[in-house]
Amino acid sequence: MSKRGKKMILFALAVLMFLSTTAYKTDYFEIAKQIEIFTTIYKEINMSYVDKTNPARLMQAAIKPMLRDLDPYTTYLSEQDVESARINQSGTNVGIGARVVLKANKLVVVEVFEGLPADNSGIKVGDEIIQINENNVSDLKGVAQQFLNGKKNSSVSLLISSNGVERSKSVKRAAVEPKAVPVAKLLDDGVGYIALDRFSKTASKEVENALKLLIIDETKGVILDLRNNPGGLLQEAVKIVSLFVPKGQLVVSTKSNIEGYNQEFKTAQEPVSLKVPLVVLINKKSASASEIVAGALQDLDRAVVLGKRSFGKGLVQRPKNLPYGGQLKVTISKYYTPSGRCIQSIDYGNRGKDGVANKYQEEDYKAFKTKKGRTVFDGGGISPDVGSGNKKNSSFIDELLRSDLVFDFANNYSHNNSIGAIKDFKLSEEEFNKFKESVYKSAFFAKDKSKLYLDGFYTVLEKDGFLGVDKKLKELKKAIHKSKKQSIVRFKKEITTVLEKEIIRRVFYRKGMYEYYLLKNKEVIVARELLNDKGRYFDIIN
What we know:
23 strands; 542 residues; globular; six-stranded antiparallel β-sheet; 2-enoyl-CoA Hydratase, Chain A, domain 1
């Protein structure tokens, strides 16, 4: 047999193997055709290109854009990434009890968990980690965070810069995880409050224990706070819903164009209470498992959902093992609530001419019915039964509140001021003005998106030969500058609330942040009023 014949047989076998492992796709020929084109190009480049090539790097460069064209959750993990994840999830490799991020090549502590090693060692939010076991963080590049992890009860030596002062610390690693429920208590009006900020493996048990204690205390109703909860384990979400609804009730389903990926998840245990009135708080940072809980309880008319429309993460991923130890985490289906609503908010399957995926538009939302016949809509995320009523922030204000300006201000304030009781804390007018002035002087204020857009627009006009527009553009820049200043004044209350919350979190941890919510947050106040007005509560839910 000729070499060409052998090659064709080997290729045919490869295609057959591929088809045998591909679930129910019908475009077999097109897939095989494109694979042959790609492998031929890849081989020719590596064998014929004028300069020496790096095959692994070339393959990575091909894979990443392909996945990026799908959705942000479909990702490729190399053998090293898979091994690191396996070690981190095994329980033998633990951390210091703090959340750190890389900011401008600096490893900065952004959260410290109460009672865990970092906290016990005096590490604070805003501290910069300069060295880990005498290795400079600047030399460790993107793997610095991994050096903080190690065997349980082992120690790691750190050089910390705190408010400009460098100190060496030895921190003993521990396997204790932060609580999923940082606060659960009966408020003075008889309303129960449970804050759930993560769907970890203990989430449902923590919520169940808190709920049982509140029922023993004869609570009038319960607020389940899912704001800023990014989600987590699906099974924990199903178990939490099962605390409030009958056994055997559909909570969420997944739907795909592949039959084998279609699933239904139902409650498998008897409820703790079918009658206790329930309000679920959500916002635009409530995602995935949070949306499953809120959507199911809303569709089943078991809770009033209050706050802002949730994030809209309704895509389900499944890991697929690859040759040589790699792994592909691929989106296989979408989440649907009991009424049939899809949670997903961004339509990655239909992109605009610019290649950007857009959110579903309100005019395209579809109506669905809850168990008792109330009308609810899809379109992405969960829309609350009762809106928070806050005026909509501008994108400039949203970006300001996410910026390092807030982070740095809260750090400086907590370092230089003492705070007594949470209930007595209030940011002064003088301190707000200090923050405002720091914003005006910042690069963020001078070069936000609008400024960059105008500079780019001017460059295009100049290249095209359009003259005499300088004056108009300067006038427009001045008007935008003035408008941004007015926005900071207009949204003073919202900005102050975020600053106060961040300062409280520095001193009283995450638990203190929720205590602050209980005292001052408008959504919590409205939820308490609703649970104390049974007529209004049942008017909404029925």
